[in-house]
Amino acid sequence: MARSGLNSSGTDVVADAPKTKLTKESFQRGLRIFRFVLPYRWPFIAGLGLLLLSSVSTMVMPKMLGYIVNVANHQASTLPAFVPKTVTGIALLLFGVVLLQGLFSFGRIFFFSRVSEFSVRDIRRTLYQKLVTLPIPFFEQRRVGEITSRLTSDVANIQDTFSLTLAEFLRQILTLLAGVAFIMWESWRLSLFMLATFPPLVLLAFLFGRSIRKLSKQTQDELAKTNVIVEETLQGINSVKAFTSEQHEVSRYGAGLNRTVKAALKSSLFRGGFVSFIIVAIFGGIFLVLWRGATYVELPAADPRHLSMGDLVSFILYTMFIGASVGGLGEMYGKIQSSLGASERILEILDEQSEPVHLPRPAGTAPLKLRGDIEYEHVEFRYPTRPDLTVLKDISFSIRAGEKVALVGPSGAGKSTIVQLLMHVYQLSGGSIRIDGHELSALDLTELRRNIGIVPQETLLFGGSIRENILYGRPDATEADVIDAARRANALQFIQSFPEGLDTLVGERGIKLSGGQRQRIAIARAILKNPAILLLDEATSALDSESEKLVQSAMDELMQNRTSIIIAHRLSTIRKVDKILVIDGGRIVEQGSHEDLADSTNGIYANLLRLQFELS
Ligand SMILES: Nc1ncnc2c1ncn2[C@@H]1O[C@H](COP(=O)(O)OP(=O)(O)OP(=O)(O)O)[C@@H](O)[C@H]1O
């Protein structure tokens, strides 16, 4: 059977995680993610306002502390008129500011959290909606782990940005600007002296920050690779056990983890260096400023360079604030860059072309009801992921409504591909397929697929009850319809043998059903769907003869009055079909009824028949 599901192994991780330089273009591209914030702009603006207020109240504090020192130093006359002239008075005022600051911070977190939670929910929903409507080739080119990490880690990264990083970034910038303004006002001489030590510090911090970002990206990449190992092995746990490769997988995962730790330690080394650099530079800078400022305090009051003690205290505090925000900005820069990368990867998926499904039906038109005449004409096909291999060559055949056709032939001949093409999952490389005289491409995709039912080789049941799984065929069906479908699919008996009947949970949290039972549920699903065209992929795994009989009679029931294409593995089951197409190497090599083909001496079908007869 062609692998039409998610590509979970085999291919290399597609170039993941583009490294995003903070350029004008990348910034503009990344900013498009903000359209998800737009619906929540009012709480966002409220959050920004509160952020501004809390920054202002923080910036007022050093000034007030300076006033306290001056009052304690009997220099109350230097204070502006609105400031109380006693130590207790200023302390009370300061306390009031602190309370306000607490209130503002609470409000800021409240609003920003709302914005980030809601917009991240919207991103996840939109992304998921996009993912499920993307065409199959998209999934064949990527690993499941890679796609799910878009929904998990990339979105989480953006959530961090919306809720924390952005606010923090703005706060740091505000602190920096307001801090510089305050100190300039206090003493431009001392400020110039202080700022002279700043540019090299800022430059070094940026350089440092850049190498840290690269390293932490490596850590993330390594971690993502180890996660892919976990996902693959858990998905294919049966194969892992069958090949007794537990130890191999454990050591593969262990090696991956070691690489992650190595990368993380290397990056932490740089981060440590960065932090200690900032500490030394800031403290060194502060002491230098303190020394210089103290010499101004010593000067007589008449000297224009004179500073009061309180001014020096607030100056030093502002200097600390400025130093801290410069240090913080380096880190913010890295975080913003990584979330730009994340948002780019998300936007990349959102920009992919969806299949045109669930389009609104033009007003006044009835749902498409196909009769089931099928015509393949010179169909040629190559899978988009393997453009150099022509899988189908010049396939032409026709089926009249209600006829049953079986495809037989060796493994890899192209049988599943022929069937897949009818669902318009892929674009043809040549030729055409028509249903009821309409080109496939002219039919509405959702309507087309609603008219086709499939019973795959391996039935995938979704976690949930048996009822939900049958209802997947037609969600609005009544209880009576579900029971009727289960009966006609020979499934009712075993369903009723479970204490909880149709409510029995299947899949991960519920009971495991046998292959034959799962198939009969798939048949019940298809009966409920009541499609004009039926695609059946016979299970290759042999069922016991009792189960096989039940499945076969359910299939016969299902096929009544429908155009049916059967991919047959056991020739005994297809004697009654109207036409058999023998496929080999992507071509139809023989066609006719069982009687026509069985008697030919050199025919492939006749040979296959003899082979199966000998084997059984
Ligand atoms: N999704 C895919 N992408 C690329 N190549 C594919 C894909 N699915 C199938 N093929 C290739 O197309 C060819 C035909 O495969 P197909 O599954 O149609 O054969 P089949 O006759 O149904 O085989 P089987 O009886 O084993 O199910 C094979 O060479 C296969 O490797």
Automatic annotation (TrEMBL):
Instruction: Mark the transmembrane ranges.
Output: 42-69, 89-111, 169-185, 191-209, 269-292, 312-330
Where is this protein localized, as stated in its record?
Cell membrane
Coiled coil location: none
The UniProt entry, under PROSITE patterns, shows: ABC_TM1F (PS50929), ABC_TRANSPORTER_1 (PS00211), ABC_TRANSPORTER_2 (PS50893)
Which PANTHER family does the record cross-reference, listed alphabetically? ATP-BINDING CASSETTE SUB-FAMILY B MEMBER 10, MITOCHONDRIAL, ATP-DEPENDENT PERMEASE MDL1, MITOCHONDRIAL
Q: Which organism is it from?
A: Hymenobacter saemangeumensis
Q: Source organism's superkingdom?
A: Bacteria
Sorted keywords for this record are: ATP-binding, Membrane, Nucleotide-binding, Transmembrane, Transmembrane helix
Q: Where is the ABC transmembrane type-1 domain?
A: 45-338
Q: Where is the ABC transporter domain?
A: 374-610
Which Pfam families would you find in this protein's record? ABC_membrane (PF00664), ABC_tran (PF00005)
Spell out the InterPro entries in the cross-references: AAA+_ATPase, ABC1_TM_dom, ABC1_TM_sf, ABC_transporter-like_ATP-bd, ABC_transporter-like_CS, P-loop_NTPase, Type_1_exporter
| Gene3D superfamilies in the record | ABC transporter type 1, transmembrane domain (1.20.1560.10), P-loop containing nucleotide triphosphate hydrolases (3.40.50.300)
Q: How does it sit in the membrane?
A: Multi-pass membrane protein
Q: What is this protein called?
A: ABC transporter transmembrane domain-containing protein
